[in-house]
Amino acid sequence: MTYNRVMIRVNVAEAKAHLSEYLDKLEGGQVDAVVLCRRNEPIAEIRPLPRAEVKPRPVGRAKGTFSVPATFFDPLPEELVAAFAGET
């Protein structure tokens, strides 16, 4: 098994000018790391963070813990309707 690791070495001035391009390459998996250099001497490394696993939210977890009262569907009082309409 072989691993192909791709690292880009850039000087700080170039990284400032093209940072979004390097971040896109990291995010897209085209490179594994960007090594920042000052006068061609490595000083830092930028690596992508692992993506958080997104799990679908389960439906119906609160089933049976709440019941809608019969008065829920009654018409609202006129003063409340007026307040929603901005008439008060």
What does the secondary structure layout of this molecule look like, with pairings?
Blueprint: E1 7-11, H1 12-17, H2 19-28, E2 33-38, E3 41-46, H3 78-84
Parallel strand pairs: 1-2
Antiparallel strand pairs: 2-3
Radius of gyration, taken over Cα atoms and rounded to an integer in Å? 28 Å
Number of helical regions: 3
What overall form do the CA principal axes indicate? elongated
pLDDT < 50 stretches: none
Which class do the helix and strand fractions yield?
A: alpha+beta
Order of helices and strands: EHHEEH
Distance between the termini: 74 Å
Largest sheet: 3 strands, mixed
| Percent range for β-strand residues | 15-25%
- What's the CATH class of the domain at 7-46, please? Alpha Beta
What is the number of E strands? Answer: 3
Strand order of the largest sheet: 1-2-3
In round numbers, the mean pLDDT is: 89
Helix percent reads 25-40%
Quote the CATH topology of the domain at 7-46. YefM-like fold
From the 3D coordinates, which CATH architecture of the domain at 7-46 would you assign? 3-Layer(aba) Sandwich
